[in-house]
Amino acid sequence: MKTKQFITLIFFTVFASAILFSCKKDEKEETPAPAPSPSPNAEFVADTNSFLSYSTWTIQATKFGKDPALGAAHGGNDSTVTRQVHFKDGQSPVNGKYPVGTIIVKHSTNTGNTLNEVTAMVKRGNNFNPTLGDWEFFMLQPDGKIAKDANGVFMRGANLMNGMCGGCHAGAAAKDFIYSK
Predict the structure, then answer these.
(1) CA-CA distance, 54 to 175, in Å (whole number)?
(2) pTM over 0.85
């Protein structure tokens, strides 16, 4: 009789242990894995909504008057122009480089607000344009929507990077292509 009770006790102990071990195993499997580190190939592709509230972002710099470095860029480069440079979320460089997803908008007006030019830069990443630090350049409408040229093509990317935007900003390569911060 004692042997039968002993075998029954062992059976229930093993059975109970198996159930407990099985539950613990399920709990471990349900615990989410930690989030992966950001990929060095991360990419941020801005769309027309990316800039809509730029006027509420931190103004990082305000410049007045003619800027000899601009030449013909940023229309109305004369003694009456005011340029405000907005950084989304007040972003700053990290170890000398701006993170992927950084958005910077420059809004230029002149006396009487007759000029309303809005330009932008976005740190796109993923080797989008390694020659210019992976920045993409934009022309915007005053409301922050991406402007279109006469053919209805959005004014962004290669036509601006290979033209005056990239040409000028290459002069600030040591500061990750940013003049204002």
Answers:
(1) 22
(2) no
- The pLDDT tens digits of the residues spanning 82-134 come to 889 999 999 999 999 999 999 999 998 887 766 678 999 999 999 999 999 99
Residue 70 burial (CB count, 10 A): 18
How far from chain centre, in Å, is Cα 22?
A: 45
Task: Report the alpha-carbon distance of residue 103 to residue 88 in Å, rounded.
Answer: 6
- pLDDT per residue over 42-53, tens digit each? 899 999 899 999
- 48-175: CATH topology is Chalcone isomerase (3.50.70)
User: In the chain, what is the greatest distance between 2 CA atoms, to the nearest angstrom?
Assistant: 107
Give the chain's mean pLDDT: 78
Q: Over the Cα atoms of the chain, what is R_g?
A: 29
* Euclidean distance between CA atoms 27 and 21, whole angstroms: 10
Phi, psi of 98 (to 5 degrees): -80, 140
Could you give the CA distance from residue 106 to residue 139 in angstroms, rounded to a whole number?
10
Instruction: Give CA–CA dist 101/45, Å, rounded.
Output: 8
